[in-house]
Design a protein that fits this description.
- This protein is an alpha+beta fold and about 120 residues long.
- It has one domain: Ribosome hibernation promotion factor-like (Double Stranded RNA Binding Domain, 2-Layer Sandwich), CATH 3.30.160.100.
- It contains two helices and four strands.
- A four-stranded mixed beta sheet has the order 1-2-3-4, covered by helices on one side.
- A hairpin with a 2-residue loop joins strand 3 and strand 4 (about 65-70).
- Helix 1 (about 15-30) runs parallel beside helix 2 (about 80-105).
- The radius of gyration is 18 Å and the shape is elongated.
- The N and C termini lie far apart (about 45 Å).
Length: about 120
């Protein structure tokens, strides 16, 4: 990443274990596409529902990919590990779609055979 990974905690204390898990998941994103410009992760504890909301912002050349994991079923994301897993899986899908589109639009067409002479 050109800009270091940014991790923000809202409504809960900083956790080295959670930060390490996020860094590992962010490195998986870089394995999918090594030209990520920046990645920002916001973890928020919703006190009224005791669930975690995860937001991911990944900047790639020419685009920003965003995942906001807010489920209507609050109990699903009461475990921070499940919330992180779901958010990063959604980002992996978006990043794979971006890579596919990027490769398709930047494909160089072969020169016509008669121009090679």
């Amino acid at each position: 990443m050109q800009i270091p990974l940014q991790i923000t905690f809202h409504g809960l204390d900083h956790s080295d274990a959670v930060e390490e898990r996020i860094r590992a998941k962010a490195s998986r994103l870089e394995a999918i596409f090594n030209r990520i410009v920046s990645c920002r992760v916001v973890i928020e504890l919703q006190h009224h529902s005791a669930s975690f909301h995860i937001r991911l912002f990944v900047v790639v050349p020419g685009d920003e990919l965003v995942v906001k994991r807010e489920t209507k079923e609050a109990h699903i994301h009461e475990d921070i590990n499940v919330a992180l897993r779901d958010a990063f899986l959604a980002m992996e899908r978006q990043l794979n779609d971006y890579v596919t589109r990027h490769r398709r639009t930047n494909r160089i067409e072969p020169a016509p055979a008669d121009s090679l002479i």
